[in-house]
Design brief:
mainly alpha, 309 residues, globular, 0% strand
Length: 309
């Protein structure tokens, strides 16, 4: 019940923030802009959405197999999708629910699977760092995103290079409320993290992660085109979009709510898009790239019976 209540409060809070954003930006003008949406792009966007999920699922499945964890594909996919529901938590730490589901259904120790969720975030950030490096040529703020991510990735690699440093780091973060449930499992995860971020699995996971962000950015780009906006090049938009995502992650707010939207609107406005039109576009981008996934996650949770406890 506590789980359900916390999740409900979080969702209601996000809805409230969105309502404030829309009211502040003049909901009537934004509504008029939304009416300009060209639905001929919708079938392509809807097709790309599950394709992005498929890329991430392939990465997740490979990480499991790399750790000698083999479960039925159908069950694995349902558990994977369930993690999207808790992607609304700060830093997506709620996706650790996948580890709990694997333990409940297949009795797989959380010490084997919880670190893989952490590794997923590492690969996401590494991929965006690569995009930001190339983005420096087309988007001036990419240099700052690249610097932040490079620092974070370096710290992660240093921490995971030594078990002693790793355990010291865990002691620093074990006070985080959500992570308390995993406090007994994470100290055992050092070997799993090393195995999942070194060797042959590393370039393959990076390639899949970059592919995901390319596809996710295509959805954002098609959303711009659906509003008749063609003044921003795809590669510029990809840098703008991923930079906004990272700023949202740094804020440690659920889904970077408010920060992602605000920074994305700001960046689009700087590139010549009228403010209210930019706001309408961002609402659609976030719906396509994140909120549909969250809804699919709740369906997965329902079938996984995690909400029935």
């Amino acid at each position: 019940m506590k789980f359900k209540k916390s999740l409900l409060i979080g969702i209601l809070g996000i809805i409230a923030i969105y309502a404030i954003i829309l009211i502040t930006f003049d909901v009537n003008i934004i509504s008029e802009k939304i009416n300009d949406f060209d639905f001929q792009y919708l079938p392509i966007i809807i097709t790309l959405i599950p394709l992005t999920w498929g890329v991430l699922f392939l990465r997740w499945n490979l990480l499991l197999k790399n750790s000698d964890i083999n479960i039925p594909l159908k069950d694995n996919f349902m558990i994977f999708i369930s993690g999207f529901a808790l992607g609304v938590t700060p830093g997506k730490v709620g996706e650790l629910i996948k580890s709990q589901l694997l333990k409940n259904k297949f009795n797989i120790s959380r010490s084997k699977t919880a670190p893989l969720v952490i590794v997923e975030r590492f690969y996401d950030f590494f991929a965006i760092a690569i995009i930001s490096l190339f983005g420096i040529l087309v988007f001036e703020y990419s240099i700052y995103i690249f610097a932040i991510l490079s620092l974070g990735i370096s710290i992660f690699l240093i921490i995971t290079s030594s078990e002693k440093l790793f355990l010291k780091f865990l002691k620093k973060i074990e006070k985080v409320k959500f992570l308390k449930n995993f406090s007994n499992e994470l100290p055992k995860s050092f070997t799993i993290i090393q195995k999942s971020t070194r060797g042959k699995i590393f370039p393959l996971s990076i390639m899949l992660s970059v592919t995901f962000w390319f596809l996710d950015s295509i959805i954002a780009y098609l959303t711009l085109l659906s509003f008749g906006i063609d003044i921003i090049d795809y590669f510029v938009l990809m840098s703008i979009y991923t930079s906004s995502i990272i700023l949202g992650v740094i804020s440690f707010l659920p889904l970077g709510i408010g920060v992602v939207e605000g920074s994305l609107v700001g960046f689009l406005s700087l590139n010549g898009i009228e403010f209210h039109l930019a706001t309408a576009v961002v609402v659609f981008i976030r719906f396509f790239t994140r909120w549909i996934g969250v809804m699919a996650g709740f369906i997965g949770l329902k079938f996984s019976n995690i909400l029935s406890d």
